[in-house]
Specification:
2 domains, 8 helices, Tumour Suppressor Smad4, alpha+beta, single chain, 288 residues, eleven-stranded antiparallel beta sheet
């Protein structure tokens, strides 16, 4: 019988996953897995004592998946992850095609097929969906869990609007796959996936193309920068929203701006960001 751990974050999303633990474990049992449910403890490594399991099933948002990935890499392991979306936005689970229904997602994993997808690494810290800094990018960290549970993704918008009051430029020296340029940036988003906070921002991104999709919002007047970002969100391509694709990006700045990885506190400047093609084993829904 295959061995699995079901790692769940009871505080993710609206906090509903805990009520479904037994039913989710039963689904895996139907497909030949012996499952050990394990509530997440962010002060402990969930792979300690679980080094030889066949599957780690993670229920939570992108931050929970990020924690599991970094914990696994810290132990030098390469164990397949199955992701049950139970957070607010669930961007990485969406990129894998997972159902929003936890029991159906469990069936997709248990009956699915293993695949390899890309992940990112910045200064030794791994991420599955997006690395970012500048306005809006620490919104997930700052948004209270209680507000996320109550109103979902709208909580990110409310917190993001408040961040306009602290809008400032970050001077950057960037080298992307050997191309060097300077940029005065309000926001930088480096995508492995294609969405952030549930909003589709990286139009060509794929977790299987070996490349990052990067958006950089240039500092102009508050009105011009805001208008440009609005135009981009509506499908336009304004010049002050710089778009590039790269596998390796180095960024230096005179400002040690706070950064974010998958909704969690990120790395400090200077930044070395690299896409690791096919570095993460995942269980995906079986293709018809």
């Amino acid at each position: 019988m295959k061995q699995a751990v079901f790692l769940y974050n009871a505080r993710s999303g609206r906090g509903d996953i805990e009520r479904n633990v037994d039913r989710i474990c039963a689904v895996f049992g139907e497909f030949g897995y012996a499952v050990k449910p394990q509530p997440i403890d962010f002060e402990a490594n969930p792979f300690d004592g679980n080094e030889t399991i066949d599957l780690m099933v993670v229920a939570g948002g992108d931050g929970t998946v990020n924690f599991a990935l970094n914990a696994m890499r810290a132990r030098g392991l390469d164990i397949p992850l199955g992701v049950i979306p139970a957070g607010t936005a669930n961007d990485f689970a969406g990129a894998l095609g997972m159902s929003h229904d936890p029991l159906e997602a469990a069936r997709q994993i248990a009956s699915g097929e293993e695949d390899r997808v890309d992940c990112g690494r910045v200064n030794g810290l791994y991420f599955v969906n997006v690395f970012s800094f500048g306005i809006f990018t620490t919104t997930s960290q700052r948004t209270p869990d209680e507000r996320k549970h109550r109103i979902g993704k709208l909580a990110y918008l409310i917190e993001g609007v408040r961040e306009f009051r602290s809008m400032h430029a970050v001077p950057l020296q960037v080298v992307a796959d050997g191309e060097a340029f300077d940029f005065n940036s309000l926001m930088v988003l480096i995508f492995n996936g294609e969405t952030a906070g549930g909003f589709r921002l990286a139009r060509r991104a794929s977790v299987k193309d070996g490349l990052f999709d990067c958006l950089m919002l240039e500092k102009k007047s508050a009105f011009a920068s805001t208008l440009a970002m609005g135009r981009y969100l509506l499908g336009g391509s304004p010049k002050i929203v710089r778009q590039l694709r790269a596998r390796c990006i180095d960024i230096v700045s005179t400002v040690n701006e706070p950064t974010d990885v998958d909704g969690q506190p990120g790395a400090e400047f200077p930044l070395h960001i690299e896409c690791l093609p096919g570095a993460l084993r995942v269980m995906c829904p079986r293709q018809e």
